[in-house]
Amino acid sequence: MTTTPTPSVEQQQQSSHPVKLPLLRPTISFYCMISDGTLTDISNGLGVAAMVLIVVYHFVAVNGKRMQD
């Protein structure tokens, strides 16, 4: 069993055929585009959550003194 020596960087740059490296890709693709419906659901959910937090904050801020007594 003989091994071929790997070419140096300079030899790789000078050769007409580039050296093909193995592609490092995950077996399961996690990179996919979000659909319009999913993006709408996420943005609506975050908007509702933000509004609920704002209402709760104002309720606590206004009634804070009454709750302490």
From TrEMBL:
One of its GO terms (cellular component) is oligosaccharyltransferase complex. It is found in: Endoplasmic reticulum membrane. Residues 1-20 are annotated as: Disordered. InterPro entries: Oligosaccaryltransferase (IPR018943), OST4 (IPR051307), Ost4p_sf (IPR036330). It holds the Pfam family Ost4. It comes from the Eukaryota. Its main location: endoplasmic reticulum. It comes from Apiotrichum porosum. One of its GO terms (biological process) is protein N-linked glycosylation via asparagine. The keyword Membrane applies. This is Dolichyl-diphosphooligosaccharide--protein glycosyltransferase subunit 4. Residues 1-17 have a biased composition (Polar residues). The chain crosses the membrane at residues 42-62. It is a single-pass type III membrane protein.
